[in-house]
Every structure is written in structure tokens, then in C-alpha cells.
Amino acid sequence: MDIDDDGEHVDRPPTFALNVLQLVRLAQAQHGMRHSDYTRYRHYCSKRLRTLYKKLKMLHGRQKYQKKRVEAANVTCERHLHVSLVCAERAWAHGMELKKDIENGPGKASSSSSRKRPHPGKGGVSSVKRRHMLARFKKASAFATEFSGLCAQRGGTKTALEAEGYSAMMAGLWKMEVPDWQEALNKLLRAKKLFEELAKVGEFDQQALFHQVLEELEPSVRFCIYNLERAQGGAAVQLQEVDLEHLESKLASLVVEAKSQAQQEQTASSLEWCKIKYPVRSEMLRNSLQHALDAEGQLRAAGDPLALYDKVVSAYGELKRLVQQALNAGGGTTTLGLGSDLSDLATAVNGTLLQHSIQKSLLLLQKEQKNFEDGMLQALQASKRSKDKASRSKPGDVVRLHDTLIGHITELIELGMKIGGAQGEVLMEQYAAKAAHYQASRCYFVAHTHLAGKRLKEAHALFDRCTKRAEDAIARYKECSEQDPDAVDALTALSKKAAAFRCCARAEYAEELLLVEQRTRQGMESLSLGDQDGTPTAGSEEVRYLSDNMDSWESFVGPGRSVRIFRIPPALYSMPVKPIFLDTALNHIERPSLDQRLPKKTTFSRMLGWAGW
Looking at the record, which segments are called Disordered (predicted)? Predict the structure, then answer.
């Protein structure tokens, strides 16, 4: 240690931060205490102590046994502080195990605690176990006091206060078993006061843990008061004020540290959504929120935002997972207002995630719509030599993007219904108009899909429905509190385009009916039993029969020709498969044609196909 000219120490020993209650409760939950298995927890503490002694090189070897104590000057890492804490937990678990055996009676005593049975004299086995139990509780209190002293010298401010509260709680539990009700009440009230003060400045998960411990201490405090009143003949017990004068400075410094840390993390201390700020108390959640905000800042500064939207959506998705995990872990604190804050934060994170997903889907949709319109323009101009035919969007691709976008908007509307109030009404009103908007746009592109497949009646009906839905969406936008003139202009243009293509579909359908009528007239005029439609020549592709061509105008009988009624022997055809599963009807289902979705082959591609490429 360096010393200056005045003889004062320059370097101070390092301090260690230790979350005492969190460490203890985690070990208890993982090693039997969920089922009150004190034996298993005591064995775990013994194994943990052996591991600590080995890591800290506190083994005794074969020399004469000499107990090695952990001194404050020798503490170099957190493991040194763990030694006293684990010793206290082991002694407490042993005492609780003996207490459980006493309550169950001599016939139900566990084998681990009744291997050596003394001769039953006055008091019997129960008195021996009770003395043993009190000795273990006293030992647990002594180890907890030692742990508190080490933390006061080598721990941080919060660690020292938490260790002192743990020590007071252990002493109070010991005094309750003696019993010394007044001393037990004083110790428990001191622990309660310390945990109440610590719960005001801790993280969210630590606050939940402190409040859980306070709930567990409350019955013990009431039991002490009851026994004191009973001993005093029913007189009310005057609760003494807890003496925390020497701890006021530590509590004040802890509050200052918490405020300075909050100022450093001010950028990620809250999430703003729908003009409301939601506090983020947990350090883990603040780090995740800061990561999401950084990604959002990069998105605003980027020239091509589409490339960074995946990063933003992924960051908010991770934040949503952590918030839900914290909400599930702290479900027992909803009565204290902490769970409700976290539930509101989960709603805000989910809403922010959906909004970013909607913006990403909108960018993709605008890009696909532009490619589709450019492809239509090139098709109208008959630019067959265009090199970017493969990049043209099909109407089916645009419809799928509309489905994704409408799904996100529907989830956000359901979130607004869940929120309720003025905020939920504004959210539902705004995104209900957007849902009507993009449903009209989807109807427009579904109509184009039918138009490309030559299903003209369906296309005409869908273009007509698109104009009606566009008018309904415009009316919804005008009813909103926040007007969106750009969306109204886009819907007006969409309605005009749908009306124009509706006329095109009607004209094409009329032309198709005219062609059918013309072919029917020509067929009727050419119908004859003469030789002009005789037997097919040798150069024809196939021999046609009446049974297979009932709707043809060809003559299959006549003088000087062979009669072609049906084929003898019949032609071979594939048999229906899977008779066991009774799905032979699938062989008779006519599926829609997908030719309009396939790229058209050029002369060059046909030549490559003939060459075997």
C-alpha cells in the first residue's frame, strides 16, 4: 500500500458489490427449498463450502487442525464474503431441519438427524434436539453477524446495508425460538426497516425480492407482538422506534449513488410510446432498450432504411422477450404497483415493435408496387427487349405483402382494445382507417391477379369492390382526430385506377363473349356430313374419336370413311393411387392454372432447353 509524505494512505482496498438476498433466494430455489427440503439444502451448502475452501486455498492438510478465519484484510474477492454467508445458511438449514423433526414427532424423525439416539431420560429425544436446534440457530446468527461485519468493511454501501438486514433477520429468527419476544421483535423491525429503505432505490427485480421478504417477515412480527401482549395480560405493546441514526449517512449516500446512476442512464430510463413515457427500472432492460434506441438512431441516419429495419425489429423483439421474462418472474408483486408498471411497459414495447414492423412492411410494399407499375407500363409499351423482366413484380407478390401488413395492423388494433381509455381509442381509430386503406389496396391487386389469369368476371367484380372500399377508407380517415391528407390522396388515385381497370376488364369480357359467339356461328356454318371433314390424313398428329370430342364441330361419320365412335382397344391411363386413404377424389379436382405466375420463355431459353442446359 502506497503512503505519501503526510503518512496518509493513498490506495484504499477495493470494495465488492454483492446482492445478498438474490444470491440466497436463487440457491434456495435451485436446491430443495421450493419443497421445504432442508436436508438437501444443507448438503448443498456443505458442498459449496468445500468448493470455496478449495478455490480460496483454505485447506488444512495433514497438519494440526487450526481454524482459518476470513479477516477483512485478507478479502481479495467475493468468494471470501461467500464463506460466512454459506456457513450461516448451512447452520440455519440444519436448525430448520431439526425443528421440522421435532414438530413431526419422534416416530417421523428423519434418518439424517437421528443417527445417534441418546438414552431417553428426562425430556427424551425432543429436548436434546431442541438444544441442538437452538445451538444451530445461534450459530447461524453468529455467522450472519460475521458476514455483516465483513461487508461493512469491504463491501459497497448497498451490500453493507443488505448484509446488516440479513443479519438482523437471522438474529430475530433465533430469538423467536429461544423465545425472547422483545429482542426478536426489535431485530425483525430493524430488518424490516432496512429492507423497506433498500426497496426504494433498487432495481425492479431487486425491489420485487425485497417486497417478497417483507411479506414473509410480516407474520413473524405480528406473532411477536401477539406473544408480548399475551405476556403483559392483553396490554398493547408500544413499538420502539428503530434506531437507524448511524445508518442515515449510508442511506443518504445510497440515495445519491442511485440518483447519479439514474442520471447516467437517463437516455434509456424510459420508453416513450403514444406520447406517454413508461419507466424502465431494471438494469438489464435498460441495456436492451439502449441497444434498441441505438439501432433506431442508425435507422434514422441511414440512406437506405430498409437494410436496418431487421436490426431494429430484432432489438425490440429481444426487449419484448426480456420484459415478458421479468413479468413472469415478478408476478407476485402486482399488488405493490410494480407488476402493473412492467405490464404497461410490455404493452408499450409490443406496440413499438408492431409500429416498426408496419413501417418495414410499408417500405417493402411501396417497392413492390413500383416494380409492378413499371412492369405494366413496359408491357403497354410492348418493350419486349427490356432486360429487367425478372425483376418485375407479380400481383400475387404484392398481395402477400398486403396480408403481412394487414396482420400487423390488426394486432395493433387488438392492442388498442386491450389498453382502453383515450389512448386506446385514438390508436384504434387511427389504425382502423389504415386497415381499411390497405384492404382496399389488397382488393385492387387481387383483381389484377384474376385479370392476369383471364378470369374477367372476377376481376371486374373485385375492381368494383375496390372502389367501394376506397370510399369507405376515405370516410374513416376524415373521421379521425389526426387527418392524413396523403393517405386520402392515395386512396383517391387508387379509386380512379380501379375504375379504369374495371372498364378494361368489362371490355375484355365483352370481346371474349363476341369471339365465342363468332366461333359458334362459324362452327354451325361449317357443320356437315360430307367429305370436307373426313378421316384425318397421315400427317395429322392424332386420330380423334367422337367419345372424346363431344363438343367439337368435326364430323366423325360419313360415306367413304371409317367410323370413329370410340377407340378399340381403349387407351391406357393412370390408375388412381392411395385407395387406403380414400382420397381418390383428388384425381378429379381441377386446380387453377398458374401460367400467369410463371416467367415466359424467350427464344434463347428455348434453344438452351433443346441443347440440354
Answer: 101-128
